[in-house]
């Protein structure tokens, strides 16, 4: 009877037993023949089959010496992968253990060979491909746990055998009994239908294992199955072409491979010994003479490892920036799913791209690697939080999604492309928990090559680095598909930031941010500030609230990033947060001014320029100060704007036409423009004479005329007419005098209410437009009503920058700094919620849409 027929007979026999036994209820006499006799075709036990065949004398001796004869002779339901004597002969001629004959095998080695080839259930090769992941999954299984005990390989290690680092130093002299992992070591098998279902090509398989395969072949790791599904009464035997000894996990392979020593040293930084009480107790029961302790080597990681330091205190939490994505030494690695659960072990494993020592050194000699070398000298000196980013880029959570045939589609956890080519892979290793691709190239994280890199590497930019990490700003700065100009105040110059919330109080304050080395967070010292003179006075208090400081630093980050090149020749550039920067010069001669700097007649200088892959990082000598004046503040304090301002503030506070507001959830430094909405705008202010002429011409009416009008209908019409006239002077999008030539049509804040044809053919219920033309020196405005106006440059009342802040509460609520209220818990709850910015120009004529 052939093997397949035997398998079918077993299935039919078991069904028959179940059916027949169900027919016998209480008094039924059991006359079923197979209750007392085994089928002749069922064969011997696994042990008897191997012993009687004569081709497995070495393997039979393994079973006897390990003490497993009774199990494999009579009981259990096992799957056993075995090797014939001729395979052992080849093994003794060349193996990593250095043994040249059976008698040189230690008991531990014998246990490993036997138990690693044993699965504690009976599986045909065909059914090994299936697993249960909440429901039956067919034809995609890659791994399955073996009978290996973690206690089969307890080793005493000391000295240079232990990883570097203070967490290991205590055991370096005396030694430590160490488990490389406390989970089982699985078999990895490549079955024909699994390869087809997962999409592993023959070329993939060759690159991964180093061996060729033909259609229908089955391999366990790189060992070919030459006979399969030998049916015994207590399980199945599958014969391998060569002796199988347990591969290590990925982390241990890296430690053992001399070509990967640098990469391995970096990874070992995140490992530590943890006392294993359960395994110690079990081992002492097995070996009563053992009185020492057993430790397990663990890695600091988000999945499968530890998130607190050894010592028993689980509150000693490891910084999340020092966690690897998963434990590379976890034998039973399982991929974590989006719902927090884990995939079945059989479904997948991990992968690592491990650059050779040569590749690691070559990287330091060019590109972004040169910055690392200049800053740290060598890989071993690079701080842990930076190396964690590097390792994370090279660690793949799914082998199935990291096949050579799909390298061109690989992206990291932050959706950034990994530029690996199949030609980069010089070797590969299949470990019990994943595949290691040995590569001739390094794949640095975007952090190293982006405008964020200089901040990450510098000891002088800890404040901004903390701000970037706190506010999840890395991904934005790391986009290699964009180009940025990133201004970074260095720590020594990080002072005199005027806090907008405090600016709206009776006693304003300036902040100096500084990095607290003890707590590893940013603090800020509070100083008196005189807004009239711009002078910073004595220190008042220290703020430690990470929430408040993170909020202010996020606002700073938004105003220190420009999308694009600020050396393109323009004078004004928008930041990410919508603020305008005035820029002059180039390179280290660049001078920058925010609106607040222009107000205070100060400039920001550049101390260092670093070109990166997605733009330029400029280290600057102070924070760029955004405008402290709102549109309301600018208009109210400028006499030349008084006629226009008086019209704006005349609307009754309770009316829907009001322009300036200060209300709940809309608090600013003073008053905000009602119809501004987190965008950038232009405000055109006609000269006082132009406003007076418009009144004389009857285009609009003064508030005195409106308020003395007794006919309510007429009065309401005058108010509506004035509101629509004024709103036509507010334009979406900021435009500046002195930038390149352009012509654009922009929307205003006035809605068209009729079907009359106008210059720009604006439809009814759409916003009226303005046509803005610049020759690079002057700006001309064209109106819907076929009128025009020009920006007045004679008195310098143009390109005035303003900002309408919105805070989460009224600044008046918080105590004054001279009352020690500025560091209070109330004030530390204050937040900049959002803002709108506007540039203000004086123009020589009023703007009319009809």
From TrEMBL:
Entry-linked PROSITE patterns: FAS1 (PS50213)
Residue span(s) of domain FAS1: 43-244, 448-624, 628-805
Name used for this protein in its record: Fasciclin domain-containing protein
Organism for this UniProt entry: Plebeiibacterium marinum
InterPro entries to which the protein is assigned, alphabetical: Adhesion/Biosynth-related, FAS1_dom_sf, FAS1_domain
SUPFAM superfamilies in the record: FAS1 domain (SSF82153)
């Amino acid at each position: 009877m052939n093997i397949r027929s035997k398998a079918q007979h077993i299935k039919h026999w078991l069904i028959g037993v179940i059916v027949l036994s169900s027919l016998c209820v209480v008094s039924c006499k059991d006359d079923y023949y197979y209750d007392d006799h085994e089928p002749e075709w069922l064969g011997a036990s696994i042990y008897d089959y191997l012993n009687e065949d004569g081709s497995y004398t070495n393997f039979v001796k393994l079973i006897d010496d390990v003490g497993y004869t009774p199990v494999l002779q009579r009981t259990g339901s096992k799957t056993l992968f075995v090797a014939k004597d001729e395979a052992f002969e080849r093994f003794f001629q060349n193996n990593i253990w250095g043994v040249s004959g059976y008698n040189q095998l230690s008991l531990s080695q014998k246990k490993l060979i036997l138990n690693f080839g044993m699965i504690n259930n009976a599986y045909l090769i065909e059914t090994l491909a299936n697993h249960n992941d909440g429901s039956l999954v067919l034809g995609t299984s890659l791994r399955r746990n073996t009978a290996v005990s973690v206690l089969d390989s307890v080793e005493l290690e000391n000295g240079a055998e232990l990883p570097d680092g203070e967490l290991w130093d205590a055991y370096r002299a005396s030694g430590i009994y160490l488990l490389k992992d406390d989970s089982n070591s699985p078999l990895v098998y490549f079955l024909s239908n699994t390869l087809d279902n997962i999409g592993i090509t023959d070329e993939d398989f060759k690159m991964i294992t180093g061996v060729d395969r033909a259609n229908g072949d089955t391999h366990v790791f790189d060992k070919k199955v030459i006979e399969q599904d030998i049916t015994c009464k207590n399980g199945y035997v599958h014969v391998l072409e060569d002796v199988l000894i347990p591969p290590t996990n990925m982390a241990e392979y890296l430690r053992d491979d001399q070509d990967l020593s640098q990469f391995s040293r970096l990874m070992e930084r995140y490992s530590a010994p943890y006392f294993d009480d359960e395994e110690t107790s079990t081992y002492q029961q097995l070996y009563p003479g053992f009185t020492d302790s057993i430790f397990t080597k663990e890695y600091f990681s988000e999945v499968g490892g530890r998130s607190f330091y050894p010592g028993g205190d689980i509150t000693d939490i490891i910084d999340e920036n020092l966690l690897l994505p998963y434990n590379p030494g976890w034998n039973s690695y399982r991929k974590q799913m989006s719902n927090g659960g884990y995939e079945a072990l059989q479904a997948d494993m991990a992968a690592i791209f491990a650059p050779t020592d040569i590749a690691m050194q070559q990287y330091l000699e060019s590109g972004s690697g040169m910055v690392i070398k200049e800053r740290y000298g060598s890989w071993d000196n690079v701080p842990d939080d930076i190396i964690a980013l590097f390792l994370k880029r090279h660690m793949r959570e799914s082998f199935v999604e990291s096949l050579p045939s799909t390298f061109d589609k690989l992206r990291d956890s932050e959706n950034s492309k990994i530029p690996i080519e199949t030609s980069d892979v010089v070797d590969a290793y299949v470990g019990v928990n994943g595949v290691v691709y040995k590569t001739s190239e390094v794949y640095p994280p975007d952090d190293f090559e982006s405008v964020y890199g200089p901040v990450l590497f510098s000891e002088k930019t800890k404040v901004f680095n903390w701000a970037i990490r706190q506010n999840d700003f890395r991904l934005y700065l790391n986009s290699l598909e964009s180009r940025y100009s990133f201004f970074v105040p260095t720590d020594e110059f990080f002072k005199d930031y005027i806090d907008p919330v405090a600016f709206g109080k009776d006693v304003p304050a300036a902040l100096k941010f500084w990095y607290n080395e003890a707590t590893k967070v940013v603090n800020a010292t509070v100083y008196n500030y005189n807004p009239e003179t711009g002078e910073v006075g004595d220190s008042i208090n220290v703020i430690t609230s990470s929430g408040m400081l993170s909020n202010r630093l996020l606002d700073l980050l938004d105003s220190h990033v420009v999308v694009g090149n600020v050396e393109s020749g323009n004078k004004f550039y928008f930041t990410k947060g919508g603020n305008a920067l005035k820029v002059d010069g180039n390179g280290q001669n660049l001078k920058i001014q925010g609106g607040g700097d222009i107000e205070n007649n100060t400039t920001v200088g550049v101390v260092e320029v670093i070109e990166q892959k997605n733009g330029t990082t400029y280290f600057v000598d102070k924070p760029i100060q955004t405008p402290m004046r709102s549109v309301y503040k600018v208009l109210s304090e400028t006499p030349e704007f008084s006629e226009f301002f008086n019209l704006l503030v005349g609307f009754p506070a309770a009316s829907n036409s009001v322009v300036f507001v200060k209300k709940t959830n809309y608090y600013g430094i003073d008053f905000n423009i009602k119809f501004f909405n987190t965008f950038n705008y232009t405000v055109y202010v006609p000269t006082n004479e132009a406003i007076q002429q418009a009144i004389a011409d009857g285009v609009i009416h003064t508030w005195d005329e409106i308020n003395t009008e007794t006919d309510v209908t007429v009065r309401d019409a005058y108010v509506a007419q004035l509101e629509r006239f004024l709103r036509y002077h507010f334009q979406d999008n900021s435009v500046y005098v002195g930038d390149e030539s352009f012509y654009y049509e922009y929307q205003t804040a006035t809605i068209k209410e009729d079907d009359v044809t106008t210059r720009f053919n604006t439809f009814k219920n759409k916003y009226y437009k303005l046509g803005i033309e610049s020759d690079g020196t002057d700006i001309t405005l064209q109106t819907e009503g076929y009128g025009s106006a020009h920006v007045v440059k004679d008195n310098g009342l143009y390109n005035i920058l303003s900002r309408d802040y919105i805070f989460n509460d009224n600044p008046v609520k918080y105590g004054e700094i001279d009352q020690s209220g500025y560091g209070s818990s109330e004030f530390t709850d204050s937040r900049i919620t959002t803002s709108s910015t506007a540039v203000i120009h004086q123009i020589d004529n009023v703007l009319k849409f009809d």
